[in-house]
Design goal:
single chain; mainly alpha; 3 domains; 19 helices; globular
């Protein structure tokens, strides 16, 4: 028999290995492509903008290569990366660290959409299982960072060179945060990942309470803090517009001084538009009190402004208040933080879904003030930065001053306003309660004519009490309106979409439940055995015999019992068991 001996050893082909890796991490390749595509779209939009400006420029002093270097550097600057400008007159590199907040929104939105679409991507029925959360997140982040590393290497040889330390910090943080938000949204915003955030709160704030817990408090505080930060930035933008109108002549002169051609003026206007959010944060810090730094040693705040140093002409810088002590017009900027504090208070006390206690409401307002302070501190740090050395080493608000002032303003204004709103809402809620409805635990009202008690002698007929529903039983168990609102009990006979936000419908519903939960009045009490009265002389308590006399207190009434005194001693009362006979 012939024996065939293999002379060569074959290695397994690469296709099974690739298939095995794909089965272990399904969707990883698609996630990598999504991340790289997000980075490419952002970079392409910046490149198109810069190339259009370069082509339309009447005197281009550089080639398309330098324009692409500028586009890459601008893309990195939008991520918060600090750049170094090498084409200075002194030859010493000058830093450029002011991040345009409007450009920052471009990579954030692209990363968010890419991560969300990577999770929601359709999967073949015969293929691997759906993409996991960690796989989609890691793929999008790695794909984005791969493109970012290539752009950093390419721009390192241009006139605007990125700082590798800032690249290693800002780029991964932004990519991880935006992609994580996209994946979390794609999975329906589960609450489990937020449990760790609630655990960071103090014990008193995260201690569970009836109807609310740490997650509810944190969610309310975050929403209120976001609204407060939006009011601060919106008020800052309004102050900026008013100041630009007041200094319109200086702003127009600076625009005409910068450039002569229409293309250059369009470029300057586009730059101003990208820096409007930064200027709004500067104005918000000015309204809060700390102000902003306009060069080293020059502070601008409502109570006074130092003389500004020699700054380059720019339309937004023309809106800076004049040097000198501030007047009533400058002090009116304090309306902005007051409005922010009132907004936080209203969303905490007026927009809550349950009636919290005064202490709990004040605690949530303080927590919202802390969150809002963190938000404004981060925005202040991103909105400012260096534009050079020496005098231009620092421009914009100081982040910790702005954050501290935000927390103080929100807490001082928000706590008393929230308590007033809470008291007003509780007062209005008590007024809406139907008359005659008593709370559980109060005295039993006296029986009236035609009541449902069997002891009624005015001709009323006995009526069976209406059984209370399950939700009314819950009302009796909780014992008060405040406890019921704190538990926020949903009636068992109401649909899931019951409009609890409608106060009129809600109070009408609970009034009906209270009416149904009242137990039947007890029966009338018999006359005392030591003072018998004839039957014809007895009158009801509310009859004419007591009309002119003093009002008697409401005594508990007991059911009438049969009189066994007239029976002989050898007879036993009915329904009495007979003892067994002994045999």
């Amino acid at each position: 028999m012939a024996v065939v001996i293999p002379m060569t050893a074959r290695r397994p082909s690469a296709a099974p290995l690739l298939n095995r890796m794909r089965d272990r991490s399904p969707g990883l390749g698609a996630s990598l492509v999504s991340g790289a595509l997000a980075a490419g779209l952002g970079l392409g939009s910046f490149a198109v903008l810069v190339m259009v400006m370069w082509i339309s420029s009447p005197y281009p002093d550089s080639g398309p290569g330098n324009a692409l270097h500028v586009a890459g550097a601008l893309w990195l600057l939008a991520h918060g990366v600090e750049l170094m400008r090498t084409d200075t007159l002194s030859g010493v590199p000058a830093p450029l660290g002011i991040t345009p907040l409007l450009l920052l929104a471009v990579p954030v939105v692209l990363l968010y959409r890419s991560a969300r679409d990577a999770v929601d991507a359709p999967v073949d029925a015969d293929g691997p299982p759906p993409i996991g959360a960690w796989t989609a997140w890691a793929g999008v982040v790695l794909g984005y960072l791969a493109v970012g590393a290539g752009v950093t290497l390419y721009t390192s040889g241009g006139e605007l060179r990125p700082d590798w330390t800032w690249v290693a910090v800002c780029l991964p943080l932004l990519a991880a945060g935006a992609a994580g938000a996209g994946v979390w949204t794609a999975y329906g915003r589960p609450r489990e990942p937020l449990s760790g955030v609630s655990a960071l709160l103090p014990r008193r704030l995260r201690r569970p309470h009836p109807g609310t817990d740490g997650r509810t408090r944190l969610g309310t505080a975050v929403r209120a803090a976001g609204a407060g930060a939006a009011v601060l930035c919106g008020g800052g933008a309004l102050l900026l517009g008013v100041s630009l109108v007041g200094h319109g002549g200086a702003a127009r002169a600076s625009l005409l001084q910068l450039t002569e051609g229409w293309t250059g003026r369009v470029a300057v206007l586009l730059l101003c538009a990208t820096l409007v959010p930064n200027a709004a944060v500067w104005s918000a810090s000015y309204a809060l009190g700390p102000g902003f730094v306009l060069g080293a040693g020059h502070l601008v705040y409502p109570l006074g402004s130092d003389p500004a140093p020699l700054l380059p002409p720019f339309p937004l810088l023309a809106a800076v208040p004049d040097a000198g002590s501030g007047g009533p017009l400058n002090w009116e900027a304090g309306v902005v933080p007051v409005a922010a504090g009132m907004t936080v208070a209203w969303l905490t006390a007026g927009g809550g879904r349950s009636s919290w206690t005064a202490r709990r409401t004040a605690g949530v307002v303080v927590l919202a003030a802390a969150v809002c302070a963190v938000l404004l501190a981060v925005l202040a740090e991103l909105a400012g930065g260096p534009l050079g050395v020496a005098t231009l080493a620092r421009l914009g608000p100081v982040w910790w001053w702005t954050g501290a002032a935000t927390g103080v303003w929100i807490a001082v204004v928000g706590v008393p306003v929230a308590l007033l709103v809470r008291a007003w809402r509780l007062r209005g809620r008590r007024r809406k309660v139907a008359p005659g409805v008593r709370k559980p635990g109060t005295d039993v009202p006296a029986p009236s004519t035609g009541s449902r008690s069997t002891g009624d002698r005015s001709g009323g007929t006995e009526a069976a009490p209406t059984p209370a529903p399950a939700s009314a039983a819950a009302y009796v168990a909780y014992g008060s309106d405040e406890a019921l609102d704190a538990y926020d009990v949903l009636p068992a006979d109401e649909p899931a979409g019951f409009p609890w936000h409608d106060e009129v419908a809600r109070e009408a519903r609970w009034a009906a439940l209270r009416e149904a939960s009242i137990p039947p009045e007890p029966l009338d009490a018999p006359d005392a055995p030591d003072s018998p009265r004839p039957a014809d002389a007895q009158e009801p308590l509310d009859g004419p015999a007591l009309a002119d006399g003093p009002a008697l207190p409401d005594f508990p009434e007991f059911p009438e019992l049969p009189d066994f005194s007239a029976l002989p001693d050898f007879l036993e009362p009915p329904n009495t068991p007979t003892p067994p006979t002994e045999l």
